[in-house]
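Lecture notes, unit on protein representations.

Consider one protein chain, 163 amino acids long.
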Amino acid sequence: MKKAVFLDRDGIVNREIGDYIKRYEEFELLPDLFPFLYEVKKRGYLTVIITNQAGIAKGLYDHELVHACHDFMQEELKGHGLAFDAIYYCPHHPDFGQCLCRKPQSLLVEKAIGRFGLDPEKCFMIGDKDRDVQAAQGAGVKGFKLQANPTIEELMSCLPYEN
């Protein structure tokens, strides 16, 4: 079975700004993301983003902004010979109703596992919140919590040792 690295978006893939990203210009990929993605791709991992985007439910931004940021992200990665294999996001917020896709729930991780035929025991998730780790664990995946905007050394510390 295949293996994957699940990544939270804000604070792991792009710079955490301390607020919702409400404008395209606020979206900045972290430079240490690129060497990390090279390494995980070299090791045969798929890469999947799992992100809560509650600003949609709150009316702070719309699906179009999220898609524009994701399109930008994929284009930047493409310029480096990289790409995310999938991006899953939850547009909901608990103040406006309940859902099964918002982390700490594991539905989006489980969807990716099913879609790609992944072995959860060979997968791991990196996030900057407890809910990221909880979502991973709920799907049988190992979770790592790092500080927002991690260095390459912090990201690499999550990779399993390989001979």
